[in-house]
Amino acid sequence: MNDECIYTFLAKEIEVQHMELVQGKGKHKTPLQRLYERAEVLYEKRKEYEQQLYIMGERNSYSKTDHDATFMRMKEDHMRNGQLKPAYNVQLAVHSEYIMGVGVFPKPNDTNTLIPFVQQLEQIHSRRFTYVVADAGYDSHENLTWLKNNQYLSCIKPQYYEKAKTRAWAKDISKARNMEYIPEEDAFICAKGRKLKYALTRNAKNKTGFISERKVYVCESCNRCGYKKECQRYMKPTTVNSVKRIEITPAYDAVLAENQDRLLSNTGIQLRINRSIQVEGAFGVLKQDLGFRRFLHRGSGKVHKMLYLLAMGFNIEKLYNRIQAGRVNTTLFTAKETA
Which one is the CATH code of 84-161+258-325: 1.20.120, 2.60.120, 3.30.420, 3.30.310? Predict the structure, then answer.
C-alpha cells in the first residue's frame, strides 16, 4: 500500500466519521487526524519529487530558474572552487569560416552531442557534408560507427592521441596494444611470454542504448610472474591468485584505424588545422571580441534564437572581411610547409 492509498483511505475514514479537523492553540488533534496530516504531507512531497524528476528527465540536475539548463562546471571559475552553474552545452558547425549551424544541449558531455547535432544539420541544409572533423571529446565507438554507416568521413582525434606520443604509452606492458598477437590461436603473448587465450565475448551497453561487442582474453597463469606489479596495476592487492584479463573491441578498433588513416593523411592534417582555426576562432570571436559570455534569456528556445542572431552577425562580418582580404572563394587555409 503506497502513500496515495493510505491518504485516500484516511480521508474517507474522516468523512465517514464526520470528524471535524481542528487547528490552532488549545485544540487537541485526534490520532486519526494526525495520521491523515502526516499522510497528506508524504503524498504532496512525493508528487513534488515526481514533478522534479519529470523536469530533470535523463539529466542529473536542473536549474529552478531555468528548467532547460543543467548545472555544469565552467571554464571560467572565478572562485576557484569548482562551483556548478546552470548552463548549456553549445555546439557550432563551421564550414569555410561561416557558422552553418548551432546546437544547444543540456548535457555537459560532448560525446553524446555529435549524432543529434549532425542530424540537425541534415534537416537544415539540403546538402550533406563530406567530412566531420572534431576534437578528442567526440571520439567514441558509437559516433565513429554512426558516421561510417551514414556515409560520413570522420576525422576525429582519438581520446589517447596526445598520450600515444609519450614513451610511457609505448612501454605499458599491461595493454593489449603492446602485446604480440597470434592470429592462428587467437591469443596474445604478454611480457613474460605467457599466453592470454580467448575466453568469451560480452556485450556492453552504454546510456544511449548502443551495444559494443567486446572479446575477453585471460592469461593461463600469472604465478611467479615478475611483471605482475606493472601488468596488473589496477588489481586489488587483496586478490588471491589474480590472473591478467584484457578486453578488446574489434569493431571499434577497425573504425578507429580507418579514422586514424584519414587523420594522418595530408587532407586530414589540413582539416585538423582548419578546425583549430575556424571553429575555435568562431568561439573566440563570439566570446572575446563580441564579449558574449553569458546568455541573457532563459529556456532553450530563446537561447537558440540568441545564438542564431549571433551567428548571422558573425557570418555577415566574416563575409565582409573575406571580401576585403580577397578570400571569398577560399574554403580552407593551407598548411605551411616546414623545412
Answer: 3.30.420
**Whole-Å CA distances, 20 to 11, 29, 34, 42, 330:** 12, 10, 12, 21, 83
Q: How many CA atoms lie within 13 A of 40 on its CB side?
A: 9
Task: Tell me, rounded to whole angstroms, the distance of Cα 214 from its chain centroid.
Answer: 21
Tell me, what amino acid is at 40? E
Strands 84-87 and 211-219: unpaired
Spatial CB neighbours of 293, under 8 Å, sequence gap ≥ 6: 76, 287
pLDDT of residue 2: 82
Q: How far apart are CA 192 and CA 112, in angstroms?
A: 40
- Bridge partners (DSSP) of residue 86 are 71
Distance of CA 43 to the CA centre of its chain: 36
> For the chain, what is the total number of helices (H) and then of strands (E)?
10, 11
Distance in angstroms (rounded) separating the CA atoms of residues 52 and 65? 13
As a 3-state breakdown, the chain gives helix, strand, coil percent values, each rounded to 5, of: 45, 20, 40
User: Domain coordinates of the chain in residue numbers?
Assistant: 3-56, 84-161+258-325, 166-249
Q: How far apart are CA 228 and CA 240, in angstroms?
A: 13
Residue 64 pLDDT class (50, 70, 90 cuts):
very high
pLDDT value of residue 22: 86
Q: How far apart are CA 34 and CA 167, in angstroms?
A: 71
